Amino acid sequence: MNEALRNIKTRRVVREMSDQAVEREQIEAILEAARWAPSGGNLRPNRYVVIEDAETRRLLRLVAPGMFQRAPVLILICTNWQVVAQHHLPAHDRALLIDIGTAAQTMLLAAHALGLASGPVTSYSKEAVRIILNLPAHYSPEMFICIGHKAETARPGMRAWQPITWRDLTHWERFPERE
Amino acid sequence: MQSNWVLKEDEAIELLALLITSARIQMDEPAHYGPLRLLTAAERLSSLIEARSSQKAREFLEGNIERIPAMHMRMSDVDAYTEGLDALCRAVAACLLRHSSLEGEA
Ligand SMILES: Cc1cc2nc3c(=O)[nH]c(=O)nc-3n(C[C@H](O)[C@H](O)[C@H](O)COP(=O)(O)O)c2cc1C
Q1: Residue A65 touches chain B, beta carbons under 8 Å
Q2: Cβ B14–A62 below 8 Å, yes or no?
Q3: Given an 8 Å threshold on Cβ–Cβ distance, is B21 in contact with A128?
Q4: What domain range is A90 assigned to?
């Protein structure tokens, strides 16, 4: 199978990570990959905050009930609302959310391609994260990407609600007329 | 029954943080995430008290709380998840009895 497609198919969220550190070049490679993710209007409203400090990571995990992993590196995807305002984008423009998604998936795949484990986390208190990281007012914390190495003891991820193939998700061509 | 030990203050605050932030995120998340958050707090509490707990309590913690992470991963099977929760409730009730004057110390 094509290498890129294999990478896409074999990536799984990892919720148990070892203490093994992630190299600086690997983190930078993941951030560079995110720079090449598609962005609505090429506006690039995302900003990335990298957290390696152990105590900061510990505190963040305490306000993030959805963060099961103890990851050696956290990358927080933020929306920079100054960029949004500069381009007169309405705050509810869905492109902002889609940009977070394209960056997130690009980073997860980049991490996997580098042999690293990763997982996205959105279940946390934004206000608490804002305080712990002393985020500038015009940054909103949108999603953490946890990066590390899979623990040897790691269990398989969450089961699907039902078995699903791409065919279940796809409709070809025009829908038939309704009676 | 030993009743004179408490969590260290830092540990209790960690648990408070988890409970309070869980309450907030539950406003935005599907209702079925509620049990997940409560069980995550139960797991966290269990790991904080395990080292200092009595043999009786440790038997409960080791036998039951340990199963929680595997349960989460099968949340999509609602019947199995509910049964898993019922089994935990039965185990915790039995543990309460063992700690009470009905069966335990009396
Ligand atoms: C928008 C979004 C938010 C997510 N938030 C969390 C989270 O807070 N905690 C977590 O453990 N996983 C989170 N996930 C990961 C999903 O649970 C995971 O992608 C899904 O179960 C499928 O597993 P797979 O990616 O390994 O195929 C999130 C995924 C997305 C796309």
Answers
A1: yes
A2: yes
A3: yes
A4: 3-154
Residue A11 placed within a domain: yes
Nearest residue of A to residue B26, measured between CA atoms = A123
Q: Determine, for residues A155 and B77 on separate chains, whether the beta-carbon distance falls below 8 Å.
A: no
> How does pLDDT run across B32-43, given as a tens digit for each residue?
899 999 999 999
Interface contact A63-B70, CB threshold 8 A: no
Q: In chain A, which residues have their Cβ closer than 8 Å to the Cβ of B76? A: 158-162
Q: Whose CA is nearest to atom 15 of ligand 1?
A: A120
Beta strands at A73-80 and A46-51: parallel, antiparallel or unpaired: antiparallel
In a domain, A24, yes or no: yes
| Residues 6+ away with beta carbon under 8 Å from A19 | A70, A72
Contact assessment for residue A68 and residue B37, using Cβ atoms and an 8 Å cutoff: no
Model-level ipTM above the cut of 0.85: no
Q: Ligand 1 atom closest to Cα of A68?
A: 11
pLDDT category of residue B104 using cuts at 50, 70 and 90: low
In chain A, how many domains are there? 1
Residue A160: inside a domain, yes or no?
A: no
**Within a domain: A164:** no
Is there a contact between A143 and A76 (Cβ–Cβ < 8 Å)? yes
What pLDDT digit, counting tens, does each position of A72-96 carry? 999 999 999 999 999 999 999 999 9
Give the burial class of A54: count Cβ atoms within 10 A of its Cβ; 0-12 exposed, 13-18 middle, 19 or more buried.
exposed
Q: Per-residue pLDDT averaged across A1-12, rounded?
A: 96
CATH at A111: 3.40.109.10
Of A68, A124, A159, the CB nearest to B76: A159
Identity at A145, one-letter amino acid code: I
pLDDT at B4: 57
